[in-house]
Amino acid sequence: MLDSAASFITASAPELRQALLDLFCRFAYKTGDFTLSSGQKSTYYINGKPVTLDPLGALAIGKLILQQLPSNTQAVAGLTLGADPIVSAVSVVSAYEDCPLPGLIIRKEPKGHGTQAYLEGPQLAAGSAVVVLEDVVTTGASALKAVERLQKAGYTVNHVLALVDRQQGGSELYAEHQLNFQTIFTIQDIHARWAELNPEAKT
């Protein structure tokens, strides 16, 4: 069990993954009746921000994602707001690992003044390989919007990497657009671990 910042820093990938899974089950996963941003109804909801904005959660996320990025990755990016802390975590951890990767944030709407840009972050060389990050994927539309904005800006985007896949169409959407899709957890991972941690709860 990881119970200190020092233990997170020195932990192996499997240990970090288990610790992150527990954080999601404790702070991000809720049961009830919910309407998702896609309009779909659900008996559970995952709000990743209590985990991605937690210092130890961010550290685990940064380390785990950095290990999964393609070797040619030149930057990471994501659609605001859910991906903001993930992009920052990966960028900071990459600097500590001596392979610094800049981060880009994609606005949902263009800035209302100045350059009216969709992208925030360093200007990269045309064709730079950028990986799109996401917290929770449902239909996949949010990350796809980020991909399209980055491609329009002249970057090469072939990968989407998410923390949790709800397995409700996102993977299929990315495949249609020839995007490689990786995820740290599936919703089955969350359901199973949550049930272990809450044996008295009805499933």
TrEMBL record:
Residues annotated for orotate binding in this entry: 138, 166
Catalytic activity, EC: 2.4.2.10
GO molecular function, one term: magnesium ion binding
Name under which the protein is recorded: Orotate phosphoribosyltransferase
PANTHER family: OROTATE PHOSPHORIBOSYLTRANSFERASE (PTHR19278), URIDINE 5'-MONOPHOSPHATE SYNTHASE (PTHR19278:SF9)
Function (record text): Catalyzes the transfer of a ribosyl phosphate group from 5-phosphoribose 1-diphosphate to orotate, leading to the formation of orotidine monophosphate (OMP).
Keyword field contains Isomerase: no
Binding of 5-phospho-alpha-D-ribose 1-diphosphate, residues: 107-108, 111, 113, 134-142
GO BP annotations listed: 'de novo' UMP biosynthetic process; pyrimidine nucleobase biosynthetic process
Subunit annotation: Homodimer.
Ranges for domain Phosphoribosyltransferase: 69-174
Cofactor(s) the record lists: Mg(2+)
Pathway(s) per entry: Pyrimidine metabolism; UMP biosynthesis via de novo pathway; UMP from orotate: step 1/2
The keyword Transmembrane belongs to this UniProt entry's keyword annotation: no
SUPFAM superfamilies, per database record: PRTase-like
Keywords for this protein: Glycosyltransferase, Magnesium, Pyrimidine biosynthesis, Transferase
Record field: catalytic activity: orotidine 5'-phosphate + diphosphate = orotate + 5-phospho-alpha-D-ribose 1-diphosphate
EC top class, as a word: transferase
Organism of origin: Acaryochloris thomasi RCC1774
